[in-house]
């Protein structure tokens, strides 16, 4: 996404942030000196000067406190600056979420996963209200259902795309059994039913 943004901004400056040092290292290797790539948590992000726009993809649903998040994003934008984002929204991958809740309550996974839910899948209405409370003068949000094929490899898709946060909390010897149990609960998992939350706001 940062690469595509740079292509569209030949005279602009891009600061790319992610909380993960590994992601930032890969992005820095790929982008070289074309972008200023930094490790930063969006809920505490501080920049030297206000920016014209914030673009975010596939990240905001990993952050629990959306009030703090939007207040901080408003804080780094100049007046009139724009926030454009897409993340998981209300109803996103609901079958996977239900399956992880059920399997996470069972032995031997419960010790690490009982009650664990890493995702904040908000509605459009509550997000618009949060954006206005955070100081955005305009806010428009909408949900967009999108089915994505698991490419004939549902187990691999679960392991690599969906369950990373769950697996991180589990001992390595339980990883295979956990993925197998979630897949068994899901039954048919040839398609992941995403519901994306689109966010457009003006500071
Ligand atoms: C699915 S990846 C998306 C990465 C990239 N934005 C993209 O679209 O390819 C989700 C990213 O959110 C990052 N993330 C999660 N919580 C974060 C936070 N509080 N602040 C910044 N980044 C965060 C993770 O480190 C991870 O790289």
Automatic annotation (TrEMBL):
Gene3D superfamilies: Vaccinia Virus protein VP39
Pfam families on file: Methyltransf_11
UniProtKB keywords: Methyltransferase, Transferase
Domain Methyltransferase type: 4-84
Keyword Ribonucleoprotein in record: no
GO molecular-function terms, A-Z: methyltransferase activity
GO BP terms: methylation
The name this protein goes by in its record: Methyltransferase domain-containing protein
């Amino acid at each position: 996404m940062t690469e595509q943004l740079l292509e569209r901004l030949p005279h602009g400056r891009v600061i790319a942030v992610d909380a993960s040092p590994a992601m930032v290292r890969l992005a820095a290797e790929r982008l070289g000196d074309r972008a200023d790539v930094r490790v930063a948590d969006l809920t505490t992000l501080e920049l030297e000067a206000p920016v014209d726009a914030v673009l975010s993809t596939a990240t905001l649903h990993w952050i629990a406190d959306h009030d703090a998040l939007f207040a901080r994003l408003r804080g780094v934008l100049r007046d009139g600056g724009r926030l454009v984002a897409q993340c998981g929204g209300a109803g996103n991958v609901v079958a996977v979420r239900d399956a992880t809740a059920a399997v996470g309550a069972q032995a031997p996974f419960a010790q690490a996963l009982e009650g664990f839910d890493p995702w904040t899948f908000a509605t459009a209405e509550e997000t618009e209200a949060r954006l206005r409370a955070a100081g955005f003068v305009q806010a428009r949000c909408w949900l967009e259902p999108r089915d994505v094929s698991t490419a004939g490899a549902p187990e691999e898709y679960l392991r690599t795309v969906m369950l990373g946060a769950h697996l991180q909390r589990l001992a390595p010897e339980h990883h295979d059994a956990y993925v197998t149990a979630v897949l068994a609960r899901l039954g048919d998992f040839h398609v992941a039913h995403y519901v994306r939350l689109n966010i457009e706001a003006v500071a």
